Amino acid sequence: MNRFMTTLTTQVLSLHLRHTFTISRGSEDVADTVLARLTAEGIEALGESAPISRYDEDVAGVARLLESLRLDRVDLRQLDTTLDLLPPHAHGARCALDLALHDLEGKRLGVPVYELFGLDPTKTVETSFTIGIADLDKTIDKTKEASHFPILKVKTGDGREVETLSAIRSVYRGRIRLDANEGWTPETAVAILKQLARFEIEFCEQPIAAGNPAGLRFVKERSPVPIFVDEDSRTLADLARLYGCVDGINIKLVKCGGLREAVRMIHAARAMGMKIMIGCMIESSVLATAAAHITPLVDYADLDGPLLITDDPFEGVRYEGARLCLPDRPGLGVHARSNVAAPAP
Question: If you write DSSP's letter for every residue of 104-169 in order, what string do you get?
């Protein structure tokens, strides 16, 4: 039994984007996330969730669930037991709590989170940088601005795919990944990807609406571009139905419920011969750093959330070009920025 006073508080972080961020489902200039502060044994630990309506979650609901927890009689070292105080479907709230528990345990033991998982911090991968949907002139401007990144992730699904990729390739020769965010039908996806293959596309993420494994198999068997999923690979329970239908999956901590579920998904996907990417929402360095700690286990990363915003209140993972450099401080290794006002507790 936990003999120490334990508190969990939340607040909303409003993160302002450098550019209007547009995908096939809509646009945003400001993204809200939920910051969780867990205090136990005289240690403050941080967690974050970036819930979105696509998964029927929002910041108010996540904060409400977290604030309802009574943790003073729980042994917080029993991570799974503590997480199970939340409903199994409450992935956004579970994510914030999971991160805070790992941050607490790392700080308690004096080791970084990657060490809790037995990982080598030098084995991280490079992250892609996202180019949202925009008109061609804006797309070219954003591509030039990001030209120092060796990998771009291009949002698509607006019907101007060939023109967009032609414009990007006119100014950029690095690696390109696509993300259609469920924007096409299976037949349209095959036709478009055959046209786009000449632009040397590394893979395409979620070409069709989630929930259609047969449609994914149809696309995979006919596309010259490898097929990954995102909206279709929310939790471990989703993976079995994807076997043989896709080349890889995108895991996001806020989708699956945190680091523990993400690691389970990684091992299951490996057993099924799938490639693995770990991705992000629009989020601060708290959530992105947590995901970065387990990148030694994956093939690809899309952890550019902190790079897309102007007012990240925290420092954590560093970017040496596109290479993710993990902090070696205990826990997540995240701390408040000195040049940005930290959110008040």
Answer: HHHHHHT-BHHHHTT--GGG--BBPEEE----HHHHHHHHHHTTTSSEEEEE--SS-HHHHHHHHH
pLDDT above 70 coverage of the chain, percent: 96
Q: List the one residue out of 325, 313, 23, 332 whose CA is nearest residue 153.
A: 23
Length of the chain: 345
Domains and CATH numbers, the chain: 7-110 (3.30.390.10), 121-336 (3.20.20.120)
Q: Give the long-range contacts of residues 263-271, CB within 8 A, separation 24 or more.
A: 263/117, 263/294, 263/297, 264/236, 265/233, 265/235, 265/236, 265/239, 266/294, 266/297, 266/298, 268/236, 268/239, 269/239
CB 254 within 8 A of CB 49: yes
- What strands lie across the sheet with 248-252, from one edge to the other? 129-131, 151-155, 175-179, 201-205, 227-229, 248-252, 275-279, 300-301
Distance CA 203, CA 228 (A): 7
Tokens of 270: 């490996």
Which residue type, as a one-letter code, is found at position 100? A
Question: Which residues, 6+ apart, have CB-to-CB distance to 153 below 8 Å?
Answer: 128, 129, 130, 131, 176, 177, 178, 179, 205, 302, 304
Compute the average pLDDT of residues 41-69: 96
- Is the distance from CB of 303 to CB of 313 less than 8 angstroms? no
Q: Does residue 235 have a pLDDT over 90?
A: yes
Kindly report which listed range (114-123, 153-162, 204-213) carries the lowest average pLDDT score.
Answer: 153-162
Residue that is written with structure tokens 């993400």 in the block = 262
In whole angstroms, give the CA distance from residue 276 to residue 273. Answer: 10
Chain CA centroid to CA 213, Å: 22
Q: Pairing between strand 7-23 and 318-320? A: unpaired
User: Which tens digit of pLDDT belongs to each residue from 247-266?
Assistant: 999 999 999 999 999 999 99
